[in-house]
Automatic annotation (TrEMBL):
Enzyme nomenclature, EC number: 2.6.1.9
InterPro entries the record matches: Aminotrans_II_pyridoxalP_BS, Aminotransferase_I/II_large, HisP_aminotrans, HistidinolP_aminotransfase, PyrdxlP-dep_Trfase, PyrdxlP-dep_Trfase_major, PyrdxlP-dep_Trfase_small
Assembly: Homodimer.
Keywords for the protein's UniProt record, in alphabetical order: Amino-acid biosynthesis, Aminotransferase, Histidine biosynthesis, Pyridoxal phosphate, Transferase
Protein name (Swiss-Prot/TrEMBL): Histidinol-phosphate aminotransferase
Coiled-coil stretches noted in the UniProt entry, renumbered to this chain: none
Signal peptide: none
Domain of life: Bacteria
Positions where N6-(pyridoxal phosphate)lysine occurs in the chain: 227
Amino acid sequence: MSKNFGPEYVRAIAPYQAGKPISEVAREFGLDEASIVKLASNENPYGVPESAKTAMAAAAADLGRYPDANGFELKAALSERYDVPADWITLGNGSNDILEIAAHAFVEKGQAIVYSQYSFAVYALATQGLGARAIVVPAKDYGHDLDAMAAAIDADTRLVFIANPNNPTGTFIGAAEIEAFLKKVPANVVVVLDEAYNEYLSPENQYESAAWVKQYPNLLVSRTFSKAYGLAGLRVGFAIAQPALTDLMNRIRQPFNVNSLAQAAAIAALNDKDFLEQGARNNAAGYQQFVEAFQQMGLEYVPSFGNFVLVKVGKDLAAGARVNLALLKQGVIVRPVGNYGLPEWLRISIGLPQENAILISALQKALASDRE
Ligand SMILES: *Cc1c(COP(=O)(O)O)cnc(C)c1O
């Protein structure tokens, strides 16, 4: 159909598969929207913090104006929180925007980008959208093999994507290993450390990546308000990097990429410590709920450091799709990960305790009928 339009490398892109919206599942399966449980997109099950709702209501009065293109107040708040100058920060329309901007700012067509097998789908999309070359490094125990990734960097490589914790597998790399990797990477290769799930890490796993940015001029740390902060629908994320990288990011960035409501809500959420702490505690409890159920059901899962778990629901290559369909019929939306090369698995976001319970019982039913 679009055979004659666009470059070949754009035509070759497999479009991103998002989690199914609740309204679509309701229509498709004849279900009541209110009865549907969505555990598909790693959103915060507690939704938008009250503090952010109040801030947005106040900001709504000014929506006739363009947003602050420089995001002054949000950057000031982030600068204080992470102890870096405000001009080391780039705001993004979600951190997805940050990842795309980085690829466009630092890589040209034909150059290479290194990322891991089973890592975030947007890395492949950003690479392909540029006509850059992907160097996909085989995973180790479903996570990043940093030694192999360092070894895979060639003369044309300009960027490395690392997700920590990783999506869709939930694996985590400790601080010492990341730092050893940063020491090995050539100075002209940008390392994008994507920490979308950082806020869910327990205190003993936390590390100061913003401090590494001071030491490594080629490091860019990417964060988001979509997951632990509960603002996925607003689209706001940010990057921390030294001015040499940040300056280029800002040339590529659309001037008004983060809207006024998002800027106001992000400042409020950033200062809402209770919301974050409670969310992390609830997430840890939900993780236990899942893990105990999976063990009881005899299901293999990958130990997760995020707000989701990757679980193996069968042995054949159609198992994930089949069990996913059986769950959809029961009004439970999860994420099949066949597009990640994991067709026997499903990725399930951790929800409210009662949502987790619904998922567990729906999964038991789905597996029982699948084995008949
Ligand atoms: C969800 C996610 C993001 C991006 O989320 P945004 O909503 O665009 O901020 C980035 N990286 C990883 C690994 C994710 O899972």
